[in-house]
């Protein structure tokens, strides 16, 4: 278990990590960061836990991670950006974490729409963005990330799709160092967010995504759409060329048709 002091030592960030809350066990770091957001806590605050009893994933799913071997974190942000660009914060976090992991491991990291990071084609990181919108605009954002770092075994139903850095790279990682790297990358990229230069983030995200030009299916709760993944929409949606025309999707599980 790392302490808040250890994490902050030598971090040297401007915004991200100015306040850090560390828990041994918590229900969900995202839920905690949302409580902080409602209470007016400053942006850049980070919540870290060794274990979550109610880790949240997309579409009401759970995020399950072994205790003490992974990274579970949420970052509270209050960027002044238009509401319609708020979804791009997932791409911002993806790019920052991809850069950090790539530097730590030397392995190329792929982005998968909408919120996954892959290593050797398997998911090792999921991001859950929870935006709180008011009439005037984005009130605050919580960006939660679960990074499978040193976990070596996964439940049988996830075995084919999930992995960890340790499994892919056959070495264990210092989680404190990796977390500091992630917070530093988020901090330096946050300047682009602040300045509204989210197109730079989208470009790097798209360069890390291999599905463009390929036939994909997007499974949503009530339908499945098939089409060629063409590009990212300016707001982070996925533009598909379908037999009936061009459409943009904002949620769903994507599979490349082989
Ligand atoms: C997904 O792939 O469905 C997104 C998973 C996000 C999980 C992380 S773990 C830390 C943070 N706290 C949560 O409750 N969820 C996110």
Task: Indicate the multimeric state.
Answer: single chain
The hetero molecules present are: biotin
Estimated radius of gyration: 18 Å
Report the uncertain regions: none
Order of helices and strands: HEHEEHEEEEHHHEEEEE
**SS content category:** alpha+beta
Major sheet strand order:
1-2-3-7-6-5-4
Q: How would you sum up the global shape?
A: globular
Q: Determine the strand fraction and express it as a percent band.
A: 25-35%
The rounded distance between the terminal residues' Cα atoms is: 43 Å
Number of strands: 12
Q: What does the average pLDDT come to?
A: 96
Biggest pleated sheet: 7 strands, mixed
Blueprint of the fold:
Layout: H1 4-8, E1 20-26, H2 29-38, E2 46-52, E3 71-77, H3 88-105, E4 110-112, E5 116-119, E6 122-134, E7 137-147, H4 165-169, H5 175-194, H6 198-207, E8 215-219, E9 224-232, E10 238-242, E11 245-249, E12 253-256
Parallel strand pairs: 1-2
Antiparallel strand pairs: 2-3, 3-7, 4-5, 5-6, 6-7, 8-9, 8-12, 9-10, 10-11
Bound molecules: biotin.
Structure described in brief:
This protein has 258 residues and is an alpha+beta fold.
Please give a structural write-up:
The protein has 258 residues and is an alpha+beta fold. Helix content is 26%, strand content 31%. The protein has six helices and twelve strands. The chain has helices spanning 4-8, 29-38, 88-105, 165-169, 175-194, 198-207; strands spanning 20-26, 46-52, 71-77, 110-112, 116-119, 122-134, 137-147, 215-219, 224-232, 238-242, 245-249, 253-256. It has a seven-stranded mixed β-sheet with strand order 1-2-3-7-6-5-4, with helices on both faces. A hairpin with a 2-residue loop joins strand 6 (122-134) and strand 7 (137-147). Helix 3 (88-105) packs across helix 6. The longest helix is centred in the C-terminal third of the chain and has 20 residues, at 175-194. The chain starts with a helix and ends with a strand. The mean pLDDT is 96. Biotin (BTN) binds at residues 28-30, 52, 55-58, 61, 63, 72-74, 115, 126-128, 144-146. Residues 28-30, 52, 55-58, 61, 63, 72-74, 115, 126-128, 144-146 line the site of biotin.
